[in-house]
Specification:
The chain has 294 residues and is an alpha/beta fold. Helices cover 36% and strands 26% of the residues.
Length: 294
Amino acid sequence: MFGQSGFIAVDWGTTNRRAYRVAAEGRLDAEFEDDCGVLSIVAGGFPAAVAEIRDRLGDWPMLLAGMVGSNKGWAEAPYVPCPGGFDELAANVVWIEPGRSAIVPGLSYLAGDRADVMRGEEVQMLGAVARGLIPKDGLACHPGTHNKWVSLEGGRITAFRTIMTGELFNLLKQNGILAAWLQSSVEPDEAFRAGVRQGLKGGALTADLFAVRARVLLGEARAEDAASFTSGLLIGADVCTGLKDGRGEVTVIGRLELTRLYAVAIGEAGRVAHEVDGEQAFLAGIVEVARRMA
């Protein structure tokens, strides 16, 4: 096993990073999270950023996952094609510092006109399976900037679809005619549910987005409900697409503030959703990858 006496696990995303010191028996000893995502690291700055992690958690071997393995990260770790599981991930880690620092590859999916990639979510998905938090066969969802809908068979990821729901909401919040109305917090209230129901109809999303403004201007909706309604609209359209990839119950993995929104939206679609903490799933997954590394 990699780091038999323990190691540092890093989930390094686009906008933030989370680092954990994991003891030999898989026990979490220490952790920290900050906003030093890969896009915040200057050219040539990754060695110093990695050294900072060791300064905070100890001079231990390090296993990293997420966007740190992209072409914008420390070093590119080529994607492993689906279907993929722990064995494929462990066999294809990329060593940056032999015996000391390695990056877990992401997964890719190609089928007809569909092409897709993921980095980091695969560790959480497979970790949830390993911990017994989700079935080995079924449909799972990982909300985030780029939401993933993942099909699992026999404990391996066989297919997935990415929907840019979080990024689109953030872009609308930063620019455009709706921006001023999207600054309030999003709650799974009736305005959110109404937006979800509209999104689930599978209509013209761009037209529905403009209607958010028109409804407020014409007195059909309150400006203070616009953020929740718009989020619901986008998530409803997301769920409308994602649920086509599988039947039965859906597991939603990630941060509570996002999983609860998707769980409500999936419920509005008439399906049952179970929420799983993404941090717990990541730790289970990264420990299993380390265990299987030669």
